Description:
Layout: E1 11-20, E2 30-37, E3 49-55, E4 62-74, E5 80-87, E6 90-92, E7 99-101, H1 103-109, E8 116-123, E9 136-142, H2 146-160, E10 167-173, E11 198-204, H3 216-222, H4 224-232, E12 236-242, H5 246-258, H6 261-273, E13 277-281
Parallel strand pairs: 9-10, 9-12, 10-11, 12-13
Antiparallel strand pairs: 1-2, 1-8, 2-5, 3-4, 3-8, 4-5, 6-7
Amino acid sequence: MQTPATDAKIYSAELISSQRITPPASREEVRHMVFRSNELALDSRAGNCIRVLAPGQFGNKYHGRLYSIIDVSPGRGAGAEFSICVRRCSYVDDFSGEEYPGVASNHLCDLRPGASIEFSGPVPYPFAIPEDKNANLLMIGMGTGIAPFRGLIRLIYEKIGGWKGKVRLYFGARSGLEMLYMNDENDDLANYYDQPTFKAFQAVSPRPALGAPVALDRALVENAAEVWDMVQSPVTHVFIAGTHDMLAGIDKAMTTLAGSAARWAEVRQALVSDRRWHELLY
């Protein structure tokens, strides 16, 4: 979407900090950005998004891009501070074949503290936390898909507390350098490794220089007994975040665990029907 809805109210926020969370040696530049808005008490539910309105192109006033809210805390007065995770992107023009910098991501990554952005929202997204603290949470993601998971994990352990169900994170990246919030530059998720209900599993590409896919399916299969037990449990919620093409690898792994495509389709449909299957894909 290039522009906000005509009836959407537009807000402004000031950039407080912009921290690169991938090491300098990584090809990927990903930033953890903190903004302050004095105009809106943001909804802090995990998975909600804002639509950043970057300067538009080709006669458009805005170029809109959704970003998941990672953290929200009370600001001064009636406002709030919030964080988003931004990866500097590029795209290939279908007509010319030329590569160009992504409009919204490069606009954000180039900002310096004190600069302002315009945005609309928040926009609700489907990562509602179950009311039952005994619920199991199976999170599977890639790339900046970890942003809503980081927010969800912090929420259940720091704000809700006393979570008794299993919390499992399977996260993939091309290399260890690109493991967001799980690398030498920034390892925020290490804060939760001592939680008895939380475990994280990393998956990387076996040959990143050759463009080999991330072995996320292998990580799931290597923990087959627990993963399959979780997805069959009536108290498990499955959260998927990342690119659309990761779904094929997840289906492949789950089919292996189930023993057949038909059995996996049956289990997945039960999750969907019970509203325990949640996707946030781009």
